[in-house]
Design a protein that fits this description.
The complex is a heterodimer of chains A (about 210) and B (about 230).
Chain A: E1 4-13, E2 16-17, E3 22-26, E4 31-35, H1 42-50, E5 56-62, E6 65-66, H2 71-76, E7 78-81, H3 93-103, H4 112-118, H5 134-142, E8 152-156, H6 164-179, E9 183-187, E10 198-201, H7 205-209
Parallel strand pairs in A: 4-9, 4-10, 7-8, 8-9
Antiparallel strand pairs in A: 1-2, 1-3, 1-5, 5-6
Chain B: H1 3-28, H2 30-50, H3 55-78, H4 80-88, H5 90-95, H6 101-115, H7 117-130, H8 138-163, H9 170-196, H10 202-231
Helix pairs in contact in B: 1-6, 2-3, 2-7, 3-7, 3-8, 3-9, 6-8, 6-10, 7-8, 8-9, 8-10, 9-10
Classes of the chains: A alpha/beta (about 210), B mainly alpha (about 230).
Chain lengths: ~210, ~230
């Protein structure tokens, strides 16, 4: 059974399709890279998959059900990391990360130190985020990948502002997640150094017509 | 624990987290927290200078004046209610929480009321002294503001949610919210006026409470819907 199935799916802006409609079937344990030039609709597509953006054509099925009908089940298994990671600058890394777990309804206390150590922010748990650099700020958001138990990840440009070593570690985490049966959909402009991943190329609609 | 109990705990956890985060953020930005209060204080200080320092004139103006200023002070604080969450991506995360958005939003509004409406209410006795509010007006003023500011926060949050996606939403926010504030202002100010005149104010307070309760029931859903529309771009 496909975890996520897209049938003739394309996002639209002002009733104009952004890219050529695609049919994709995503199974558990897969890593999918959404690729395409700037403005091809990568972010829009990811937002549509989460349900943040609703002008699209075609169908999105989650475990063979329309997403709109299994919204609670879908959201309980989803981790979405957008362009803006949702980090409040006036709060500490610990307060921010704990909030992410809490609004999902998790009652346990997050092991913030361990998650931050994984992204190279050892000892930053109680530092307000406005004292951090742009890269460190992103890393706090990425620390969610180390404690959130959701199996389905949607990551929008997770490697932005991250140094080489950080990217390698992040790829390692993605690989491990897929190995454990999790699913990852991500956008990035660089090639991934994973052995097995699938790329969805978004072709600009206008380009395809010519 | 049964499944429904676990679910209940999850919802409460999420509500509590939003409420606490809102308060912590508010107290870390003390300047913004004090902004409506300083505005409130400033207008009251300038009023006698601009109009008249005569006791009788000020006393007759005081009930309506304090209510209008409180209303404008609340309006001043509304624009920021969802703005920072929208800009830093927290709002998307709230929308993608499996917990009901209306509850999370209600937690935010409650925190907003706690840091604007309540301090405004507590500050009114001082304003009353400065404007020679007659003694019998103090308690009705505080009571009507306590209930009324809750309505103002709830109704205002709908406008804030509708305009959060616009780059310059401030003006539209005022235009959307102002007509909805009119009934609250009328009943609030009239409660104080009647009390000063020596009449019973049970009716006005009851209407204010009814407005606050209906806003409490309806506003969170309206805000949740408006936020979904604002983020959908």
């Amino acid at each position: 059974m496909a975890l996520l199935q897209l049938n003739k799916f394309t996002c639209t802006r002002d009733d104009e399709p952004l890219f050529v409609p695609i049919d994709v079937s995503i199974k558990a344990g897969e890593v999918i890279q959404v690729a395409g030039p700037n403005g091809a609709g990568k972010t829009t597509m990811l937002r549509a998959l989460c349900g943040l953006f609703d002008s699209f054509d075609g169908e999105i099925l989650w475990r063979d059900q329309p997403v709109s009908r299994s919204r609670f089940a879908f959201l309980s298994q989803l981790l979405y990391l957008g362009h803006q990671p949702g980090i409040k600058k006036s709060l500490t890394a610990r307060e921010n990360l704990q909030w992410f777990a809490r609004i999902k309804g998790e009652t346990h206390t997050v092991n913030v130190e361990a998650a931050l150590a994984e992204v190279g922010l050892d000892g930053y748990a109680d530092i307000p985020c406005h004292q951090m650099s742009a890269g460190q700020h992103r890393r706090v958001g990425l620390a969610r990948l180390y404690f959130d138990a959701s199996p389905f990840w949607i990551l929008d440009e997770p490697f932005t502002a991250i140094d080489k070593a950080g990217v390698a570690r992040l790829e390692e985490r993605v690989k491990q997640h897929a190995y454990e049966g999790g699913t990852v959909i991500l956008t990035t402009h660089q090639a991934l150094s994973l052995e097995s991943y699938r790329a969805i190329e978004l072709e600009k609609y206008r380009g395809a017509l010519q | 624990m049964t499944a429904s109990e676990t679910e209940q705990v999850s919802v409460l956890t999420a509500i509590g987290a939003c409420f606490k985060r809102e308060l912590v953020v508010a107290f870390r930005h003390k300047g913004e927290l004090a902004n409506p209060l300083i505005f409130f204080l400033m207008v009251v200080v300038f009023l006698p200078l601009g109009i008249s320092s005569e006791k009788a004139v000020l006393a007759s103006l005081a009930p309506g004046m304090i209510w209008v200023i409180a209303l404008l002070a609340t309006l001043l604080s509304l624009d920021g209610l969802f703005r920072s969450d929208y800009d830093d991506g927290s709002l998307e995360q709230m929308l993608l929480s499996p917990q009901p958005l209306a509850w999370l939003v209600l937690a935010k509004i409650a925190a907003h009321w706690l840091v604007t409406g309540i301090p405004l209410t507590l500050l009114t006795p001082l304003m009353g002294v400065m404007l020679f509010l007659p003694a019998e007006g103090y308690l009705p003023m505080m009571l009507s503001l306590l209930i009324g500011t809750a309505s103002l926060s709830l109704i205002g949050s709908i406008g804030a949610a509708l305009t959060v996606g616009l780059r310059k939403g401030g003006l539209i926010l005022s235009l959307v919210v102002m007509p909805l504030y009119v009934p609250v202002l009328i009943f609030g100010a009239s409660a104080v006026n009647e009390a000063v005149g020596g009449f019973a104010i049970g009716g006005q307070i009851a209407v204010l409470a009814a407005m606050a309760l209906s806003a409490l029931v309806l506003a969170p859903f309206a805000v949740a819907g408006a936020l979904r529309i604002s983020v959908n771009s």
